[in-house]
Request: fold
Amino acid sequence: KHPELWMRYLNHVRQHLLQKDYALPDLAATLSWLNQWQPADKKLPPRLKLQWQAARLACANHFGATDLAQIEDCLQLGQQLIDEVAPEVCEAHLRIAVAATNAFEFDTASHILNAWQNQEAAVCGLVNKAKVLSSLGQHRAFVGDYAQALCLFDESLALFARLTDTQESRKESEQTNIYRLTVLMDDTNTTA
Reply:
């Protein structure tokens, strides 16, 4: 009914997403509202649709839900936008990998992220590259390949350490350090 107002709301959500300034329950409610009231004559540009899908995946992942159609749509958008906005595509792929991991589809999750493993950090962004390595480390740990998991965690932590913002570096490293310590406890062949 009011497409300009809807677009203003959508742009406001985009700003919060870009700044990572949101709580997932609030984001879920907002996205649900935006979806319900999307004007029929409005078509989201592919990049905005990717951000939208990635945010919806983040909400679904938080609640352990998996929507295969949404994942497929996100993968197609990523393929279309890879040369234009590689860091955003990588973020979306990280969210898809979480959804696959939630469904215990570790091979699928790893397959999605393997392409990013060999990319330079400058392509997908330093934080994203470190998150990719950390996620791949988790997948290796899930299947009992602890030595490879530790290598991937160490590579990830080295990248997080390169961040110029020490507070962000510490925050981003925290979870990977927890995963690394868990592997060290689980691996009977490792001495801490």
Remarks:
- Residues 16 and 22 are 6 Å apart (CA to CA).
- The chain has a mean pLDDT of 87.
- DSSP finds ten helices and no strands in the chain.
